[in-house]
Amino acid sequence: MEYLDLAMRWLHVVPAIALVGGTIFMRVAVVPACNQLDESVRASVQESVRRGWSRLLMPSIGFLLISGFVNTANISMNYQFPGNYYMPLLGVKLFLAIAIFYIASLLAGRSEGAVKFRERQVFWLNVNILLAVLLVCIAGAMRLADREPKDKDPAPAKSGAVSLQALEEASSNHFDS
Predict the structure, then answer these.
(1) DSSP state at residue 160
(2) pLDDT (tens digit per residue) in 131-155
């Protein structure tokens, strides 16, 4: 089970690094470089970057969603959180992730709406970077949240089970009278 947990962790962290790093790279390197090109060359380069980015984006979003749900289920089944802030932070993290995926998908999309959305590409890249930084900060807080392992093998007294010794005592008392 530990190998599966590790694999799911990697399937969550690696795509997140690719998406956040790619977004930052596009904002600080690709966009300024394209702005220095002639209009005809710029459109060709931007289209090539968009196609390549979308090939990375969609599988990464899929891996993040699947591994995120598996990791959340695993944590929820194995730990309890004495503080009342883990689950609300998880909700905020999920909301931010969906917003990030939506913006990134529009920036990489081919539809007329996506083309119109890209007219403000720098603004939306900045928004996505800010949302990603907030998400990473929330994930860090969640990682440090107080957690206690749930009992996997409850003690007999807690489960209402009767010990063999108690049964022997009860039966000997019954037959002795």
Answers:
(1) T
(2) 999 999 999 999 998 889 988 665 5
Q: How far apart are CA 38 and CA 101, in angstroms?
A: 31
Report the alpha-carbon distance of residue 25 to residue 31 in Å, rounded.
9
Q: What is the Cα–Cα distance from 5 to 2, expressed in whole angstroms?
A: 5
Interatomic CA distance for residues 129 and 108, integer angstroms: 15
CA neighbor of 132 nearest in space, from 50, 1, 20, 6: 20
Write down the pTM of the prediction.
Answer: 0.80
Q: Minimal CA–CA distance to 15: which of 59, 71, 45? A: 59
- Asked if residue 72 lies in contact with residue 5, where contact means CB atoms within 8 angstroms, the answer is no
The rounded distance, in Å, linking the Cα atoms of 177 and 171 is 10
